[in-house]
Structure formats: structure tokens, C-alpha cells
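Protein in question quoted for reference:
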Amino acid sequence: MHSLRKNTNESSSWPRKVFAWFKSLGSGIILDIRARAPWYISDWKDAWNYRVVPATALIFFANVLPGIAFSLDLIETTAQYGVAEVLLSSFMAAFIFSIFGAQPLTIAGVTGPITVFNKTIFDILEGRNDSPNYLHFIGWVYLWAAIIHWITAVLNWCNFLKYVTLFSCDTFGFYVSWVYLQYGIQVTTRQLQSTDPHNIPGALVGITLALLMLVTSFLFQSLSRKTFFHRHVRRFLADYGMPMSLIASSAMAYWGRFNTANPDTLPIGLAFMPAGGREWLVRFWQLDGKWIGIALPFGIVLWILFFFDHNVSSLMAQSSDFPLRKPPGFHWDFFLLGITTFLAGLLGLPAPNGLIPQAPIHTTSLLVMGHPLKKRDVEQDTTIIGSGAQTPFPPTDADKARVTELSSLNKMISEVPVSVVEQRVSNLAQGSLCLVLLTGPFLHILNLIPRGVLAGLFWYMGVDALRGNGITQKIFYFLRDRKLTPEDEPLRKVRKSRILLFIAVQLAGFGATFAITQTIAAIGFPVIIMLLIPLRVFLIPRLPFTSAELAILDQPTASPFTMESVGGSL
């Protein structure tokens, strides 16, 4: 009798479970829209802030120029893409995510991984006698990926982001940083290989301009953090240092003997015209049936890449370092990413997705700094020195100068982020500038930028991202003088052997990802990246870390407020 009642209860609960499952379909998207919709008007009103201006300028240069440089190999190898395709892809992503997105701070555009993905497919197809039309095949790859994107959003699979911690983000960020450094080297070496023997000076000038771009960018960044000049000047250098370096370095190519060297510049095409004079509409539905099925595995690989890359860039743009007050929306934005992927295949564009390090750079440029603390340790030190209470001699001129320096440093150090200008205009504006760049006059200006300057931009962005990476910071901890290490440094509570073990696992993940991208198997590198998540969830806890040590070594990427959209954090 009891077993009969139990079977009856189980049979009656099964329809309820099925109904509950159907009811949950798309619930993540609905919750994202409901959470973000009340803020939509303020997203436009809040843009009435000066921080939007430097953010737009910075991200425009940091997005469009690396995107073009990443695509140089794809443009020159396949002859299926041009600068127009890259610019239109960046505009499309900026327009859709700034107007309709739930996370407008996330910058999307053409990345290095997608150019590697597209070029690898081209290499595979070119090796066949019966190779299909490349853009038709890519169109189906993008369509399959878009469909899986939509399924992912509807089934709430973005909730798996709760398992993405700083372990995965730092490892992937470390990989992206080295990709930037590698591409900078490739840009310079390509000039040496492709340059006519009589124009070797042009290649050498390109290398000189790359180093000039690198040094001046860091010089402006360093000056913005010193005690020189008024604080408004320092903030100006922080906001516009990189764009000024890029413009100045490009102008140097046309100064004196540098101009006669004729260094290589960016390639361009006709205004608003696709590469090779083809139509903008790619009729991918005309592809032979057997290739449609073959495109599916490639679409799955692309979905894996975008699921990790785009969502991690969104997490980093909304990390716990930023005092955000507006809710995120991972499910809805991933649904929109499926739309942009489909449109990219329809128009023959490289598919855009979230950018690292541009997305967190965008949020950083929108930070509003302030002085929330009233009591400062440095003030106590300067009071002691200035009063002469602890010294048998009256303060000297050197002491007074030191007091002034400490006071200035104190004002800078005590500045902390108090808010972020969360709005949609800077993303839309930088994307609109990409569209403006497609006009004839501005394409001519784009053609004046030497490739060497882009190499310097790659190096600057790569090194700057490496400096703030968690892996690099842990390595610096070992190199730093222990006596000069703050007493409240959390890593002091972790055994050094365990820190080294944690770094070793991260570097192994980085090495595997970087190595596979150097081979013909580069098409599978998104799988290696995705494996970082189960590696963290299942392997790391089995290694000899205590729970306290693991809590210090690895933390959620974003705050609980942000992670609430995906059901919390690990």
C-alpha cells in the first residue's frame, strides 16, 4: 500500500516537474529585462557627465585600431574581408548592445580569437579540391552558433557563470595579454618580411614608431600618477595620454627623414564597400547541403568561444573593483550576441563579441574618484615631521619639502572610486565613430597611420593588462622585498608552496591555450579555454589547499550584486 502511494506521488509529481521546466524557459531573459528596464531612461540621462568624453575617445582608439590590426592577417590571407567589414562589425555591435543591451558598459568588437578562428577555417577549406564558397560556409557556421546562443539564453545556461572565478578570468586575461604582445611582434616582423630590400628604412622607422608609441603612452600614464602639475592636468594625461601618443607617433612618420622612409600604413578600401567588390548580402543558403552539416561542429566551437570570451569580458567590466549600482543582464545580452553573430554571417563580417581588456578599460575610464576617508596615516606622519616633535632639531627645508610631497601623495592615494558613470552613450558614440571612419575622407586619414604605431599600441595594451593581472601580481609578491610588503597583504596568510602551485596550474592552462593557437589545431583552442571552468570546480579543490587559502587565492570575479543575475557565485 505504501509503495503504491509512493508510485502515485512520483507519477503525479512528474508532470509538475515538466511544467516547472517549461515555465522556467526564458526566465533569465525575462528577469534581466525586468531588472534593467527601470534604469533605461537614466542610462541616457546619466551620460550628461564629462567622464563620457574621455571614455569615448579612449575606447574608440582601443577598439577600432586593434580590431583592424588583428584582422590584417585575415584580410591579406583570405581577401574576403577588408577594413570596411571590421569597422561595420564594430559599429553593429556597439549599436545593438548600447541601444538594446542590459550591460552597455561591455565593449564588443572584432577580437584576436575570432580572426584566428576564421583564418583557420579558411586554411582548412583551401586544402580541399571541392572547397565551398568561404563566406557561404562561414555564414552557416555563424547561423549554427547563433541558434545555440539563443538556446543557451532560453535554457538559462548562463547560470553556469557562477563557476567562473578569478582563476579562469586571470588565466584567460593572461593569455589575451600575451596575444596582444605577440601580434605587436607580428606586425613589426611582417614589415621586415614584406618590405622591398630598397625600403628597409621604412621597416626600421616602423619599429622606431612602435617603441615611441609604447614609451610615450607609459610616460603619460606615469605622469598622471605623480605629484607633478595640477590634478586636472594629471587627470587629462590619464584620460587622453594614449590617444595623444597615437596621434603624435603617427605624425612623426611624416616628419623629416622619417617621411622619406615611407613606412607601411594601414590598408583601406572604398567607402562603404566590401572587399573584392562583392555584394553586402551573403547568400549562404545557396551552400551545398553536405557543407551545412559540416559547418555545425565549427558553430559549436564558436559558441564555446563566445560563451566564455563574451561573458568573461562582461564580468570583468562589472568586477567587484567597480562601485556599480545598476543590475546586469547576462542572459539577455547573450541572446543579443546570437543576433549580432547571425547578422555578421549574413553581411560577411567578422563576428563581434566582448573585448578584453577594452571592456574593463571602458568601465575604468568612467570611474568617478573621491576622498571618502577623513583620517589618514600619512597626515599623522607629516604632522610629526612638520612639528619636529620626534626630532631634536627643527625641521629643515628638506623636511618641509618632504611634508609637501607626502601631503600631495596622500591626496592621490586616498582617492578611491566612489561611483561609475553607468550610461549607454560612450559605447554608442565610439561605435558611431567607426561608421564615420568608413567615409572617404576619414578612410584616407586611417591610411596615414603607420603599422608600427599599431604594434606599439598592442604592446602598450598588452603590458598594461599584464601589470594588473592576478597571475602577475602573485609573481610580483615573490619578487617584492618582504620587509616592504604590507602587513595586511592577504597572500602572507598563504603558504608560498601553495601560491606557487596555484600559479603553476594557471600557467599550465595559459600554456596549453597559447600553444594550440600556434598550430593547425588552433580551431579547437576555445575548448581548452572552456576547460578552465571544470578545472577550477573539480581539480583545484582536490589539490592540497585549505579552504582559507583557496578563498584568498581565488575569488568571485564580480560582486554578489552582479552575480545575482546568474544565481550567485561559487
